[in-house]
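Intended use. Records such as the Protein sly1 homolog entry shown here are meant for training and evaluating sequence-to-structure methods. They are not intended to support clinical decisions.
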Amino acid sequence: MTSSIRDKQIAALKQMLNLNSPEYKDNGSEPVWKVLIYDRRGQDILSPLIPIKELRECGVTLHLSIHSERDPIPDVAAIYFCMPDQDNLDRIAQDFQNNVYEKYYLNFISAICRQKLEDLASSALQTENVSHVHKIYDQYLNFISLEDELFILSNQNAQSVSYYALNRADAKDTDVEVMMDDTVDGLYSVFVTLGTLPIIRSARGNAAEMVAEKLDKKLRENLRDTRNSLFSSENSGIYNFQRPLLVVLDRNIDMATPLHHTWTYQALVHDVLKLNLNRVTVAQEQKKPKTFDLDPKDSFWTTHKGSPFPTVAESIQSELEHLKNSEEEVKQLKESMGLDGESDVALAMMSDNTAKLTSAVNSLPQLLEKKRLIDMHTDLATSILSVIKSRRLDLLFEFEEKVMSQASLDKQILDIINDTEAGTAEDKMRLFIIYYIYTHSITDSDTDMYSSALEKQGCDLSPLKYIKRWKMFSNITATSNQYGGGTKSVNMFEKLLSHTSSFVMEGVKNLVVKRHTFPVTRIVDELLENKQSSGTSDEFRYFDPKQLRSSDGFKSKNNFSEVIVFIVGGGNYIEYQNLLEYVRNKTVSPGIPQLRIVYGSTVVNNAPEFLEQLSLLGQELH
């Protein structure tokens, strides 16, 4: 399997930190010491990929924000990693003026335009700094890798490319154009970093189509510029199966999944706790909140992030018992050796047990690290469990699963709305919107009755106002067939809720959550299999930047080994995990490489954030 997008971005960043020479390897010599200056976007890109310890190993002694107050440091090289916007360029010119550093290595996250480059050259000339500016690079790293198969384009300025920003009533054409250009710039960086040219499919008549058209044009322009092309024939793949398929989708194709109460570990962490750039914050009563880093190197996390929560709780319990046994072994070994020095037998046994003790001592650092990680997951699971109990998330999840898979309901939705213990006002609104989207027989009088009940429970009805309009203009006749799934257990969390102190999970192994296919996964499957019967292939435009002329003709079935799914308007961990599950369950023909799916989006929203955006859109409707 080729390197992941995350690996390639890390390699590019480390090369940059080594003054754009091939990555520094420890050969006994000291690295060149330098300072790192970044803007907010640069910080977002670096934060999930390179911890401070690794920055030090790369020779970075100091890392500072470009707009912070910085004292001059003579005789030192400074690496700048920032967007080529006017504020940053003005600040760099100010640093030239103040002779802050000895050597300047300027790395722009996106390509700097000719005019701005000339202005920068003028600043260097006027301040007699031309000889101090050693290198200027366009890095094409304008995206944030969160995992091997997951990236986003924005974090701290997520509002600028959010679903709300794209769909608000007063969005001007120029605003939308800027958003589309920013999105295309990020996707372009992804493919420059991967070193491959994609074949692009996108739905017609929405923001996704605009992104696909603009990206196709940008890739074509670069290919035509043979002297400066970023895609050489050697690494861009001559044959179709070596090239990735990029599927660009609009958030409007599925508005239920982003609001769905979830059941998998990672999606629950994102929904009920504060997860941002792989860092999660857990509030504690009368104590300072705890912050944890969810590292892809943490094997427990990588194994269980897509597992149902009860399975995770059971695994934590067995890991804790395993750790306890390991600690007991070390303790017994010390006792048997009589390390208090009073036992005569101890001397006779010393030679036999020394090897065992040495082995135990050597494994101690790994044991301590494992204990730290399991303690962290225990804290996270305990916090999630208390939210499941207080908001009855088990009940909400079960009901939504039945609604989305068109199964018969054992409860009336009005009963859940009126149940004061079943979720917050926000939870009830999420539940009802999903019910409203998937129920085709719902009348206006029914909706008014439900709205009145929701209002009595303190719900803000603005999101529903927007969804009503969305449903009116959307073609969602196929919704009933989009979601295969449900659960075989009626109260899958019941056993868990009765054993909160330790994660004892009786009967959990018998629980089978049926396989689900969310709309995004279904579309990807139909495009991969080129299923003509579904009509998806005809509804989706086809772009190949390597073809001389743009053509919508989709001539043959391609055996893609890599698919990049990109959602304009915000993605979520539920869809991401569903795509990974699809890959795990896909059978591969002999001689064809294992499929890899990468999920990307402009931003990654949890349900409360998405509901808030719908609320703002609803308030704008008269």
